[in-house]
Amino acid sequence: MNATLMERDAMDRKIISVSKKRQITIPLKYYKHLGLDNEVECTLEDGAIVIRPLNRDSGEFSVEILKDLISQGYSGDELVKKFEAQSKNIKKAVTHMLEDADAIAAGEKESESFEDVFDPEN
């Protein structure tokens, strides 16, 4: 077995403890290797818990943000700065929407009704 494959095998498998509160500690080498921050995405796949770096990419809004900023007359470095600021705002808004959705799903918050959302008189 070559050294690269042995290194990968050592990195790929680690037995970790689960606390009484169902918490785990991600090994530091995994944390650093994946560039993790304070949140991760957790999914169930084929009978396994899969933890991935959270990628709340606002990329799908990038074209719209750029079009809007260009129409406002921004260009060059100023365009880049405004784009970065707008992208951060999108990420914050998406994070807030996800938190609201989680609270609604947990029964901690009431959702809007169909009429609240689509009634033109509201």
From TrEMBL:
Q: Which residues form the UBA domain?
A: 60-100
Classification via Gene3D superfamilies: 2.10.260.10
What domain of life does the UniProt record list for this protein's source?
A: Bacteria
| Record's keyword terms, sorted | DNA-binding
GO function terms (MF aspect): DNA binding
The SpoVT-AbrB domain covers 13-56
Q: What is this protein called?
A: SpoVT-AbrB domain-containing protein
